[in-house]
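Subject: Acyclic terpene utilisation N-terminal domain-containing protein

B.,
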Amino acid sequence: MSEIRLLSTSAILGYGFPEASLAAGMARRPHMIGVDGGSVDPGPHYLGAGKPFCSPMAIRRDLRLMLRAAIGAGIPLVIGTAGGGGGAPHLQLVAQMAREIAAEEELHFRLALIHAEPDRAMLLQQIAGGRVHPLAGLPPLAPEAVDRAERIVAMMGPEPFLRALEGGAQVILAGRSSDPAPWAAACLRAGLPPAPAWYAGKMLECGATPSLPKGHDCLLVTIRDDHVDCEPMNPIRRCTPLSIANHSLHENASPIHHVEPGGMLDTSDCTFEALSDRAVRIAGMRWTPAEQYTVKLEGVERAGFRSVCFCGTRDPLLIDRIDVFLEEVRGIVAEKAAAFGATPEKYQLTFRVYGRDGVMAGREPLRDHTPHELGFVIEVVGATQEVATAVLGIARTNMLHTDFPGRLCREGNMAFPFSPSDVEVGAVYRFSIYHVLELDDPCAIFPIAYEEV
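Prediction pasted inline below.
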Protein backbone atom coordinates (compact mmCIF):
# COMPACT_ATOMS: atom_id res chain seq x y z
CA MET A 1 0.00 0.00 0.00
CA SER A 2 1.20 3.54 -0.74
CA GLU A 3 -0.34 4.79 2.51
CA ILE A 4 -2.19 3.52 5.54
CA ARG A 5 -4.47 5.48 7.88
CA LEU A 6 -4.62 4.45 11.52
CA LEU A 7 -7.05 5.75 14.14
CA SER A 8 -6.24 5.76 17.86
CA THR A 9 -9.11 6.57 20.21
CA SER A 10 -7.31 7.49 23.43
CA ALA A 11 -4.16 7.08 25.49
CA ILE A 12 -5.50 4.03 27.36
CA LEU A 13 -8.61 1.87 26.94
CA GLY A 14 -10.94 3.20 29.61
CA TYR A 15 -9.66 6.80 29.63
CA GLY A 16 -12.60 7.77 27.44
CA PHE A 17 -13.01 9.77 24.21
CA PRO A 18 -15.81 11.81 22.59
CA GLU A 19 -18.11 9.83 20.32
CA ALA A 20 -18.04 12.71 17.84
CA SER A 21 -14.25 12.37 17.52
CA LEU A 22 -14.60 8.66 16.80
CA ALA A 23 -17.22 9.40 14.13
CA ALA A 24 -14.97 12.03 12.54
CA GLY A 25 -12.10 9.57 12.49
CA MET A 26 -14.19 6.80 10.94
CA ALA A 27 -15.32 9.24 8.24
CA ARG A 28 -11.68 9.41 7.13
CA ARG A 29 -11.86 5.67 6.32
CA PRO A 30 -9.01 4.34 8.50
CA HIS A 31 -7.51 0.95 7.77
CA MET A 32 -7.33 0.04 11.47
CA ILE A 33 -8.68 1.31 14.77
CA GLY A 34 -6.93 0.68 18.05
CA VAL A 35 -5.87 1.82 21.48
CA ASP A 36 -3.17 1.02 23.99
CA GLY A 37 -4.73 -0.98 26.80
CA GLY A 38 -2.30 -0.51 29.64
CA SER A 39 0.99 0.64 31.05
CA VAL A 40 3.62 -0.01 33.67
CA ASP A 41 3.25 3.61 34.85
CA PRO A 42 0.65 2.98 37.62
CA GLY A 43 3.13 0.76 39.43
CA PRO A 44 3.37 -2.93 40.31
CA HIS A 45 0.03 -3.45 42.08
CA TYR A 46 -2.16 -4.01 39.04
CA LEU A 47 0.14 -6.56 37.47
CA GLY A 48 0.47 -8.45 40.74
CA ALA A 49 -3.20 -8.28 41.67
CA GLY A 50 -4.40 -9.14 38.17
CA LYS A 51 -6.72 -6.12 38.16
CA PRO A 52 -7.17 -3.23 35.71
CA PHE A 53 -6.26 0.32 36.72
CA CYS A 54 -9.20 1.71 34.73
CA SER A 55 -12.67 0.81 35.90
CA PRO A 56 -14.36 -2.08 34.06
CA MET A 57 -17.32 0.24 33.43
CA ALA A 58 -15.09 2.72 31.59
CA ILE A 59 -13.27 -0.04 29.68
CA ARG A 60 -16.57 -1.56 28.56
CA ARG A 61 -17.88 1.79 27.32
CA ASP A 62 -14.81 2.47 25.18
CA LEU A 63 -14.64 -1.09 23.90
CA ARG A 64 -18.30 -1.11 22.86
CA LEU A 65 -17.91 2.01 20.73
CA MET A 66 -14.72 0.73 19.13
CA LEU A 67 -16.17 -2.70 18.36
CA ARG A 68 -19.22 -1.16 16.73
CA ALA A 69 -17.04 1.13 14.61
CA ALA A 70 -14.51 -1.50 13.54
CA ILE A 71 -16.98 -4.29 12.76
CA GLY A 72 -19.29 -1.86 10.99
CA ALA A 73 -16.44 -0.67 8.77
CA GLY A 74 -14.94 -4.12 8.26
CA ILE A 75 -11.51 -3.13 9.61
CA PRO A 76 -9.34 -4.61 12.36
CA LEU A 77 -9.54 -3.49 15.98
CA VAL A 78 -6.25 -4.02 17.83
CA ILE A 79 -5.57 -3.50 21.54
CA GLY A 80 -2.19 -4.09 23.20
CA THR A 81 -1.53 -4.62 26.92
CA ALA A 82 -5.22 -5.39 27.38
CA GLY A 83 -6.69 -4.82 30.80
CA GLY A 84 -3.88 -2.63 32.13
CA GLY A 85 -1.08 -5.03 33.09
CA GLY A 86 -1.18 -7.39 30.12
CA GLY A 87 -1.21 -10.59 32.20
CA ALA A 88 -3.55 -13.53 31.76
CA PRO A 89 -6.35 -12.19 34.03
CA HIS A 90 -6.19 -8.76 32.39
CA LEU A 91 -6.45 -10.28 28.91
CA GLN A 92 -9.35 -12.53 29.88
CA LEU A 93 -11.24 -9.63 31.46
CA VAL A 94 -11.27 -7.65 28.20
CA ALA A 95 -11.90 -10.77 26.11
CA GLN A 96 -15.00 -11.59 28.14
CA MET A 97 -16.22 -8.03 27.72
CA ALA A 98 -15.75 -8.34 23.95
CA ARG A 99 -17.79 -11.57 23.90
CA GLU A 100 -20.59 -10.03 25.95
CA ILE A 101 -20.70 -6.85 23.86
CA ALA A 102 -20.77 -8.93 20.67
CA ALA A 103 -23.80 -10.84 21.97
CA GLU A 104 -25.58 -7.65 22.99
CA GLU A 105 -24.82 -5.81 19.73
CA GLU A 106 -25.15 -8.84 17.40
CA LEU A 107 -21.58 -8.47 16.19
CA HIS A 108 -19.64 -11.29 14.51
CA PHE A 109 -15.87 -11.44 14.22
CA ARG A 110 -12.77 -13.62 14.46
CA LEU A 111 -11.01 -12.89 17.75
CA ALA A 112 -7.32 -13.46 18.46
CA LEU A 113 -5.95 -13.49 22.00
CA ILE A 114 -2.16 -13.11 22.21
CA HIS A 115 -0.81 -14.29 25.55
CA ALA A 116 2.22 -12.68 27.19
CA GLU A 117 2.98 -14.65 30.37
CA PRO A 118 6.06 -16.75 29.53
CA ASP A 119 6.52 -20.26 30.84
CA ARG A 120 8.54 -20.23 34.09
CA ALA A 121 10.54 -23.35 33.26
CA MET A 122 11.56 -21.79 29.94
CA LEU A 123 12.69 -18.63 31.73
CA LEU A 124 14.85 -20.63 34.11
CA GLN A 125 16.46 -22.37 31.13
CA GLN A 126 17.14 -19.03 29.46
CA ILE A 127 18.70 -17.66 32.66
CA ALA A 128 20.97 -20.67 32.85
CA GLY A 129 21.86 -20.18 29.19
CA GLY A 130 22.88 -16.56 29.71
CA ARG A 131 20.09 -15.13 27.58
CA VAL A 132 18.49 -12.89 30.23
CA HIS A 133 20.14 -9.55 31.01
CA PRO A 134 19.33 -6.82 33.58
CA LEU A 135 18.07 -3.32 32.88
CA ALA A 136 18.36 -0.08 34.86
CA GLY A 137 21.41 -1.16 36.83
CA LEU A 138 19.68 -4.16 38.38
CA PRO A 139 21.56 -7.34 39.29
CA PRO A 140 21.36 -10.42 37.06
CA LEU A 141 18.05 -12.26 37.29
CA ALA A 142 18.23 -15.00 39.91
CA PRO A 143 16.11 -18.15 39.58
CA GLU A 144 14.70 -17.42 43.04
CA ALA A 145 13.21 -14.17 41.75
CA VAL A 146 11.33 -16.11 39.08
CA ASP A 147 10.01 -18.51 41.71
CA ARG A 148 8.89 -15.67 44.01
CA ALA A 149 7.20 -13.62 41.30
CA GLU A 150 3.46 -13.26 41.54
CA ARG A 151 3.23 -12.62 37.80
CA ILE A 152 5.72 -12.19 34.94
CA VAL A 153 4.92 -10.75 31.52
CA ALA A 154 7.04 -10.31 28.41
CA MET A 155 6.63 -7.23 26.22
CA MET A 156 5.93 -8.37 22.66
CA GLY A 157 6.92 -6.55 19.50
CA PRO A 158 4.87 -6.25 16.28
CA GLU A 159 5.46 -9.81 15.03
CA PRO A 160 2.69 -11.54 17.06
CA PHE A 161 0.23 -8.87 15.87
CA LEU A 162 1.34 -9.46 12.30
CA ARG A 163 0.77 -13.19 12.72
CA ALA A 164 -2.71 -12.62 14.17
CA LEU A 165 -3.66 -10.27 11.32
CA GLU A 166 -2.41 -12.79 8.78
CA GLY A 167 -4.45 -15.42 10.64
CA GLY A 168 -7.60 -13.54 9.72
CA ALA A 169 -8.34 -11.95 13.10
CA GLN A 170 -10.50 -8.84 12.94
CA VAL A 171 -10.30 -8.17 16.68
CA ILE A 172 -6.93 -8.66 18.37
CA LEU A 173 -6.51 -8.43 22.14
CA ALA A 174 -2.94 -8.83 23.32
CA GLY A 175 -1.19 -9.19 26.62
CA ARG A 176 1.79 -7.00 27.49
CA SER A 177 3.20 -5.36 24.40
CA SER A 178 5.41 -2.49 23.42
CA ASP A 179 3.04 0.46 23.16
CA PRO A 180 3.79 1.28 19.47
CA ALA A 181 3.93 -2.38 18.39
CA PRO A 182 0.29 -2.88 17.22
CA TRP A 183 0.50 0.20 15.03
CA ALA A 184 3.92 -0.73 13.68
CA ALA A 185 2.51 -4.17 12.79
CA ALA A 186 -0.28 -2.66 10.69
CA CYS A 187 2.21 -0.51 8.80
CA LEU A 188 4.67 -3.35 8.23
CA ARG A 189 1.86 -5.59 6.98
CA ALA A 190 1.00 -2.86 4.47
CA GLY A 191 4.58 -3.03 3.17
CA LEU A 192 5.72 0.30 4.60
CA PRO A 193 9.24 0.79 6.01
CA PRO A 194 9.88 0.25 9.73
CA ALA A 195 11.05 3.82 10.48
CA PRO A 196 7.75 5.62 9.77
CA ALA A 197 5.88 2.57 11.10
CA TRP A 198 7.48 2.85 14.53
CA TYR A 199 7.28 6.64 14.57
CA ALA A 200 3.58 6.45 13.84
CA GLY A 201 3.23 4.02 16.72
CA LYS A 202 4.94 6.47 19.08
CA MET A 203 2.29 9.04 18.17
CA LEU A 204 -0.73 6.73 18.17
CA GLU A 205 0.01 4.98 21.46
CA CYS A 206 -1.21 8.04 23.39
CA GLY A 207 -4.21 9.01 21.27
CA ALA A 208 -4.51 12.78 20.86
CA THR A 209 -1.92 13.54 23.55
CA PRO A 210 0.48 14.92 20.87
CA SER A 211 -2.07 17.69 20.22
CA LEU A 212 -3.06 20.90 22.02
CA PRO A 213 -4.83 21.22 24.35
CA LYS A 214 -3.73 17.86 25.70
CA GLY A 215 -6.58 15.46 26.38
CA HIS A 216 -7.82 11.93 25.88
CA ASP A 217 -9.20 11.99 22.38
CA CYS A 218 -8.85 10.49 18.90
CA LEU A 219 -5.82 10.89 16.62
CA LEU A 220 -5.60 9.97 12.94
CA VAL A 221 -2.14 9.22 11.55
CA THR A 222 -1.42 8.72 7.85
CA ILE A 223 1.79 6.79 7.11
CA ARG A 224 3.64 6.76 3.80
CA ASP A 225 7.10 5.57 2.73
CA ASP A 226 9.06 8.51 4.09
CA HIS A 227 6.79 10.52 6.37
CA VAL A 228 3.96 10.50 8.90
CA ASP A 229 1.02 12.94 9.11
CA CYS A 230 -0.74 13.51 12.45
CA GLU A 231 -4.12 15.17 12.94
CA PRO A 232 -6.51 15.15 15.93
CA MET A 233 -10.15 14.36 15.15
CA ASN A 234 -11.64 16.81 17.64
CA PRO A 235 -11.88 20.35 16.18
CA ILE A 236 -10.93 21.87 19.54
CA ARG A 237 -7.46 20.28 19.27
CA ARG A 238 -4.57 20.84 16.92
CA CYS A 239 -1.19 19.29 16.28
CA THR A 240 1.69 21.73 15.93
CA PRO A 241 5.36 21.08 15.11
CA LEU A 242 6.21 21.86 18.74
CA SER A 243 3.51 19.62 20.24
CA ILE A 244 4.57 16.70 18.04
CA ALA A 245 8.29 17.21 18.70
CA ASN A 246 7.57 17.51 22.42
CA HIS A 247 5.57 14.27 22.48
CA SER A 248 8.30 12.39 20.62
CA LEU A 249 10.59 12.87 23.64
CA HIS A 250 8.37 11.12 26.16
CA GLU A 251 8.91 7.89 28.11
CA ASN A 252 12.44 7.25 26.99
CA ALA A 253 15.91 7.51 28.49
CA SER A 254 17.16 9.22 25.32
CA PRO A 255 15.33 12.05 23.56
CA ILE A 256 16.26 10.71 20.11
CA HIS A 257 17.02 6.98 20.40
CA HIS A 258 14.01 4.78 21.11
CA VAL A 259 14.91 1.13 21.70
CA GLU A 260 12.19 -1.33 20.73
CA PRO A 261 12.00 -5.09 20.19
CA GLY A 262 14.06 -5.72 17.08
CA GLY A 263 15.80 -2.40 16.74
CA MET A 264 16.07 1.33 17.46
CA LEU A 265 14.07 4.28 16.17
CA ASP A 266 16.37 7.28 15.61
CA THR A 267 14.61 10.65 15.56
CA SER A 268 17.70 12.87 15.61
CA ASP A 269 17.17 14.15 12.05
CA CYS A 270 13.37 14.46 12.12
CA THR A 271 11.73 17.48 10.53
CA PHE A 272 8.32 18.85 11.51
CA GLU A 273 6.20 20.66 8.91
CA ALA A 274 2.80 22.23 9.59
CA LEU A 275 0.39 21.05 6.88
CA SER A 276 -2.34 23.26 8.33
CA ASP A 277 -3.13 24.82 11.69
CA ARG A 278 -4.17 21.32 12.90
CA ALA A 279 -1.94 18.78 11.10
CA VAL A 280 1.80 18.12 11.07
CA ARG A 281 4.05 16.07 8.77
CA ILE A 282 7.10 14.37 10.30
CA ALA A 283 9.97 13.05 8.14
CA GLY A 284 13.60 12.03 8.54
CA MET A 285 13.17 9.17 11.04
CA ARG A 286 15.51 6.16 10.75
CA TRP A 287 15.36 2.56 11.92
CA THR A 288 18.41 0.48 12.87
CA PRO A 289 17.78 -3.27 13.23
CA ALA A 290 19.17 -4.89 16.37
CA GLU A 291 21.85 -7.54 16.15
CA GLN A 292 19.90 -9.60 18.68
CA TYR A 293 16.13 -9.53 19.08
CA THR A 294 15.11 -8.96 22.72
CA VAL A 295 11.91 -8.41 24.68
CA LYS A 296 11.56 -6.84 28.11
CA LEU A 297 10.42 -8.93 31.07
CA GLU A 298 8.37 -7.32 33.85
CA GLY A 299 7.75 -9.21 37.06
CA VAL A 300 6.38 -8.37 40.48
CA GLU A 301 6.51 -10.08 43.85
CA ARG A 302 4.48 -9.55 46.99
CA ALA A 303 6.20 -7.33 49.55
CA GLY A 304 3.61 -7.45 52.34
CA PHE A 305 0.29 -5.83 53.16
CA ARG A 306 -0.53 -2.13 53.46
CA SER A 307 -2.78 -0.03 55.70
CA VAL A 308 -3.04 3.76 55.46
CA CYS A 309 -4.52 6.70 57.30
CA PHE A 310 -5.01 10.35 56.27
CA CYS A 311 -4.94 13.30 58.65
CA GLY A 312 -3.87 16.93 58.82
CA THR A 313 -2.94 19.78 61.13
CA ARG A 314 -2.77 23.57 61.05
CA ASP A 315 -1.33 24.03 64.54
CA PRO A 316 1.62 26.43 63.98
CA LEU A 317 3.45 25.24 67.08
CA LEU A 318 3.31 21.63 65.92
CA ILE A 319 4.27 22.55 62.36
CA ASP A 320 7.35 24.40 63.64
CA ARG A 321 8.72 21.17 65.17
CA ILE A 322 7.12 18.56 62.94
CA ASP A 323 10.30 16.56 62.25
CA VAL A 324 11.02 16.13 65.97
CA PHE A 325 7.37 15.30 66.57
CA LEU A 326 7.29 12.57 63.91
CA GLU A 327 10.43 10.97 65.33
CA GLU A 328 8.86 10.96 68.78
CA VAL A 329 5.75 9.30 67.39
CA ARG A 330 7.92 6.76 65.57
CA GLY A 331 9.66 5.87 68.83
CA ILE A 332 6.38 5.46 70.70
CA VAL A 333 4.99 3.27 67.92
CA ALA A 334 8.06 1.01 67.99
CA GLU A 335 7.70 0.50 71.74
CA LYS A 336 3.95 -0.07 71.81
CA ALA A 337 3.87 -2.26 68.69
CA ALA A 338 6.64 -4.47 70.04
CA ALA A 339 4.52 -5.02 73.15
CA PHE A 340 1.89 -6.87 71.07
CA GLY A 341 4.44 -8.73 68.94
CA ALA A 342 4.89 -6.39 65.98
CA THR A 343 8.63 -5.90 66.26
CA PRO A 344 10.32 -3.43 63.84
CA GLU A 345 11.45 -6.10 61.36
CA LYS A 346 7.78 -7.03 60.77
CA TYR A 347 6.67 -3.69 59.36
CA GLN A 348 7.72 -0.45 57.68
CA LEU A 349 6.22 2.83 58.90
CA THR A 350 6.24 5.85 56.56
CA PHE A 351 5.00 9.40 57.13
CA ARG A 352 4.32 11.36 53.92
CA VAL A 353 4.03 15.05 54.72
CA TYR A 354 1.98 16.99 52.14
CA GLY A 355 2.21 20.77 52.10
CA ARG A 356 5.91 20.60 52.76
CA ASP A 357 7.68 17.75 50.94
CA GLY A 358 5.04 15.12 50.24
CA VAL A 359 5.76 14.95 46.52
CA MET A 360 9.58 15.07 46.34
CA ALA A 361 10.37 14.03 49.94
CA GLY A 362 14.10 14.32 50.57
CA ARG A 363 14.72 15.82 47.12
CA GLU A 364 12.50 18.85 47.77
CA PRO A 365 14.61 21.99 47.09
CA LEU A 366 12.18 24.53 48.64
CA ARG A 367 12.54 24.31 52.40
CA ASP A 368 12.77 27.97 53.36
CA HIS A 369 9.09 28.62 54.02
CA THR A 370 6.68 27.59 56.77
CA PRO A 371 3.34 26.22 55.57
CA HIS A 372 0.17 27.07 57.47
CA GLU A 373 -1.15 23.52 57.28
CA LEU A 374 0.22 20.03 56.65
CA GLY A 375 -1.42 16.84 55.47
CA PHE A 376 -0.13 13.39 56.42
CA VAL A 377 -0.42 9.99 54.84
CA ILE A 378 0.55 7.42 57.45
CA GLU A 379 1.49 4.17 55.75
CA VAL A 380 2.39 0.85 57.29
CA VAL A 381 3.51 -2.15 55.25
CA GLY A 382 3.51 -5.28 57.37
CA ALA A 383 4.24 -8.95 56.99
CA THR A 384 0.48 -9.54 57.35
CA GLN A 385 -2.58 -7.35 57.04
CA GLU A 386 -3.20 -7.78 60.76
CA VAL A 387 0.26 -6.46 61.64
CA ALA A 388 -0.06 -3.51 59.22
CA THR A 389 -3.43 -2.48 60.62
CA ALA A 390 -2.37 -2.91 64.24
CA VAL A 391 0.75 -0.78 63.83
CA LEU A 392 -1.19 1.82 61.87
CA GLY A 393 -3.72 2.08 64.69
CA ILE A 394 -0.96 2.83 67.19
CA ALA A 395 0.64 5.35 64.81
CA ARG A 396 -2.67 7.13 64.20
CA THR A 397 -3.46 7.29 67.92
CA ASN A 398 -0.09 8.77 68.77
CA MET A 399 -0.17 11.27 65.92
CA LEU A 400 -3.40 12.42 67.53
CA HIS A 401 -2.36 12.51 71.19
CA THR A 402 1.44 12.84 71.53
CA ASP A 403 2.26 15.98 73.50
CA PHE A 404 4.75 18.66 72.48
CA PRO A 405 6.15 21.81 74.13
CA GLY A 406 3.80 24.81 74.09
CA ARG A 407 0.78 22.75 73.09
CA LEU A 408 -2.41 24.73 73.68
CA CYS A 409 -5.01 22.26 72.38
CA ARG A 410 -5.54 19.58 75.02
CA GLU A 411 -7.59 17.38 72.67
CA GLY A 412 -6.31 15.85 69.43
CA ASN A 413 -3.47 17.17 67.31
CA MET A 414 -4.93 16.02 64.01
CA ALA A 415 -8.04 16.43 61.86
CA PHE A 416 -9.28 13.26 60.10
CA PRO A 417 -11.31 13.61 56.89
CA PHE A 418 -12.73 10.06 57.01
CA SER A 419 -14.34 7.67 59.44
CA PRO A 420 -13.20 4.94 59.61
CA SER A 421 -9.82 6.59 59.58
CA ASP A 422 -7.79 3.45 58.88
CA VAL A 423 -7.94 1.86 55.42
CA GLU A 424 -6.74 -1.68 54.70
CA VAL A 425 -5.29 -1.53 51.19
CA GLY A 426 -4.34 -5.20 50.92
CA ALA A 427 -1.38 -6.87 49.30
CA VAL A 428 1.59 -4.72 48.30
CA TYR A 429 3.72 -5.63 45.29
CA ARG A 430 7.14 -4.48 44.14
CA PHE A 431 8.90 -4.83 40.81
CA SER A 432 11.39 -7.66 41.05
CA ILE A 433 12.07 -8.42 37.39
CA TYR A 434 13.05 -5.71 34.91
CA HIS A 435 15.24 -7.56 32.45
CA VAL A 436 15.49 -8.38 28.74
CA LEU A 437 15.24 -11.82 27.18
CA GLU A 438 16.98 -12.77 23.94
CA LEU A 439 14.69 -14.46 21.41
CA ASP A 440 15.45 -16.21 18.14
CA ASP A 441 11.77 -16.24 17.17
CA PRO A 442 9.85 -13.05 18.09
CA CYS A 443 6.60 -15.06 18.34
CA ALA A 444 7.97 -18.03 20.26
CA ILE A 445 6.70 -17.07 23.72
CA PHE A 446 3.49 -15.34 22.62
CA PRO A 447 0.92 -18.04 21.75
CA ILE A 448 -2.20 -16.97 19.86
CA ALA A 449 -5.66 -18.42 20.47
CA TYR A 450 -8.39 -17.83 17.88
CA GLU A 451 -12.15 -18.01 18.31
CA GLU A 452 -15.25 -17.06 16.38
CA VAL A 453 -17.33 -14.59 18.37
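The chain has two domains: 4-298+433-452, 315-414.

T.
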